[in-house]
Amino acid sequence: MTKKHLLILWICFCHFANAQQKDFVIPDSLSTKGYEYFSKNILYKERDSVKEKGYAKSWLAKAKLEKNYGQMALAYKALLYKSNKKSQLIYADSIVAAAKKTADIELIGSAYMTKGIIYYDRREQMNALDNYLIADEYLSKTNNQYLIYKLKYAIGLTKFYLGFYDEAIALFKECVNYFKQENNRAYLNSLHSLGLCYNCIGKYELSSQTNQLGLSAGKRYKNLEMQSYFIESEGVNQYFKHNYSDAIKKLTAALPQVRHNKDFANETVANFYIGKSYWSQNLEEKALPYLKKVDDAFQKQNYIRPDLREAYELLIGYYQQRNDKQKELYYVSTLLKVDKLIHKDYKYLSGKIYKEYNTKKLLQTQRDNEQFWTVVAFIIITIMTIIIAFFISRHYRNKRLFATLMNREPDTVKSLAIENGNKEMELDISPEVVTVILKNLEKFEYKKKYLDKDMTLGKMASILNTNPKYVSKIIARYRSKGSIEYVSDLKIDHIVALLKNESKYRNYTNKALGEEAGFGSTQKFTRAFNNRTGLSPTYFITALKNQ
């Protein structure tokens, strides 16, 4: 059949549907009823209900007569849920057309979301996403949290389809928290989708916990519509936990209700994982019929998703081993079609969702946080001002310290003459011994023995021909320092003198200078230099070079 013939049939169908609606006369029993009456008496639970469909048609006829486009959109929505799948897309277009004639952005956004949901149910993911994105443009400007979260759930399903599981989890968690208090069925749906995502990222225990939570919540709410789906989800989860028998048991138990719901997508998933469970137990003959049902769904419904394509690989390998060229060729050619479809959908969907939805959300976040970032910017500027002031202050301080250091002479050895006779008495050391130690200390300084690596008090006492106790007391009394500080300062004074007087040392690294002074590590040297001079070796050398 050509495209021209299809177009003619479509126009005829629309004309027929409109003609039927125009010919519809509101029954006398409903002619005086208001919009609220129709809204309350349509429960949206059983499709093709003759009574409720009559309410919906009466609702629409009344709205058309009164040219109330908002009520027309709601009536079309009621008819959509009371009609078969072939008519639903027509009614979805009518909902959008009626809503757009109002100035109600909430109604328009809701209309586009409804149309997106219809496309999603038809497995037309690209068209679904296009309508979700338009819906988001409208709903993001409203305060209707229920519709906003309903759209978040729909976007989450698209992210799940694309394989962006972590992002989908974030959205589904938000939906779980919101719908728990708002809508039992939406809460169960969100839990189910969250469990599937956990499975896909390998968090099997979390998936099991979420599925169990869904089963318990369904019983508590006395809403068992999702029970088979949680059981199916747990069956898939058990497959990945390598509990193949339990997986088969749960998936087989879920299948009858899934088939009853005419949910070919979840039926296909269940068949695939039953087949995979048998295959993993080397029961290939049992697995074969279930794997072939994946192909049946593709041929009849054009339904496939990336994880299901493995069924074709297994079937190709099976018939290849049995040298059945005809069937091998069939599944190879079909797999090529599958890959083409997956590539087409994923390339489009991932591009749309990131370029439009994610970018829009980022821009919205940017707008929402402008004030926050203004405060942050002020704080950063203040901190930077303080830091700059600190560095300027340190610069001038370093300049003063450098000038002082350039004019300072190293500590000189005090004369051996005893200025105060009581000093020796206070030390509890005889004057003769003090004199000998001081003379040896002079030699120690003159011969630069302090440059020996890791000079200790014991080593110094040995060089001075005395004991560590006496050395410590003499240095404290005549050099006004502890023995470690005394040796460290001598080393640094030596390096400062070298840097002042011999330019070649200014090209040394801190490590080399530390070794020259006899320090055990570069860190000890730089710390000692800073303690003695108030400057870093690098700054002092740079200042010398600039001089």
From TrEMBL:
The chain crosses the membrane at residues 372-392. Residues 431-543 form the HTH araC/xylS-type domain. Keywords: Membrane, Signal, Transmembrane, Transmembrane helix. InterPro entries: HTH_AraC. Residues 1-19 form the signal peptide. This is AraC family transcriptional regulator.
